[in-house]
Amino acid sequence: MDENALRAAGIDYDAALARFMGKQAIYEKYLRKLPEDAHMDAAWAALEQQDEAELLEQVHAIKGLTGTLGITGLFEQSAAIVALLRAGTREELQEKMTSLKQEWDRVCETIRQA
């Protein structure tokens, strides 16, 4: 994978690689799986169905996954959405979810091309 392209996309490659104890092949294996992960689609379905419990579960999973993989922007955005949901605040939820999805798509495209 093109480490520079990943870094340019906001992936903290070095920190994530350290979490994987320096095992580059294993880290990149999991990173390559992100574009096929179903959590974002499930989160959108929950948002459309106004199922806040399911939305919280899916966005929390995205937060954990992106945190582990060092995808800082997605991690921060998903953490903000989790905080909104836990506070019972729906204001800005649609906007924040749209932004999260756009960033997800951008990062996934970078991973596919890297």
UniProtKB/TrEMBL annotation:
SUPFAM superfamilies: Histidine-containing phosphotransfer domain, HPT domain (SSF47226). Residues 39-108 form the HPt domain. It comes from the Bacteria. One of its GO terms (biological process) is phosphorelay signal transduction system. Pfam families: Hpt. This is HPt domain-containing protein. It comes from Roseburia hominis (strain DSM 16839 / JCM 17582 / NCIMB 14029 / A2-183). The lineage of its organism: Bacteria, Bacillati, Bacillota, Clostridia, Lachnospirales.
